[in-house]
Amino acid sequence: PIPKILWNCTQLTILYLWDNQLSGSIPQELSYLVNLELLDLGTNKLTGSISNTFGNLTKLTALYLDGNWFSGHVPREIGTLMDLRYLQFYDNNLSGPLPPELCAGGMLKRLIAFDNNLNGPLPSSLVNCRSLERVRLERNQIEGDISEMGVYPNLVYMDMSSNNLFGQLSYHWGECHNLMTLRISNNNLTGEIPASMGQLSQLGWLDLSSNKLEGELPSALGNLKKLFNLSLGDNLLHGSIPLEIGALS
């Protein structure tokens, strides 16, 4: 287990315990470390639920809980951490919804939560979070309409594949000028691929396969000079492949 002597170190601002063999649950005494700004418990054998005492660590900017055996829900209190920029809890056994206040502080840059059993809707605070740079939520059971998504000027990487998302791709995706990877395969997206995606000059990987997209391929995709992986299979697309796409090299 995590050594109890740590809870007396109330002036700690950074605590790295990643990649060890720590076991047991996170003790309630964690809330004593009120000055913590970074906590990394990733890649251990920690079990039980994620404690709601994280809500007391109001100075946290980075929280890494990935690669453990945590179960239960992600506590709502994590969403109330106004300075949180980096949040990782991928590769656990977590279920339930994402905290509704996630990114309420408008500071969240990285959310990595793939390979869990998360469900419920996408929080509106996350959908509207313009500070996002990297988001990985693939292989969960998250639901929700993504029609309002796409206004992320700093976004570089987003993967929401293999969930239960629906709705249409907004033309706003064309405003994500730093986006290099967009993967939303194996969901229930409908409508057409917006021509505005041809404005994503940095895009290298676009995977929208295994949805219900229809219409013709927009010729504007031929503007994606850095594109090296385009996956649009298993949809309802029709028409011919635009010459502009065929000219990509």
Automatic annotation (TrEMBL):
Coiled coil: none annotated. Gene3D superfamilies: Ribonuclease Inhibitor (3.80.10.10). The keyword Ligase does not apply. PANTHER family: OS01G0750400 PROTEIN, RECEPTOR-LIKE PROTEIN KINASE 2. Keywords: Leucine-rich repeat, Repeat. It comes from the Eukaryota. SMART domains: LRR_TYP. This is Leucine-rich repeat-containing N-terminal plant-type domain-containing protein. The keyword Repeat applies. It holds the Pfam family LRR_1. InterPro entries: Leu-rich_rpt, Leu-rich_rpt_typical-subtyp, LRR_dom_sf, RLP_Defense.
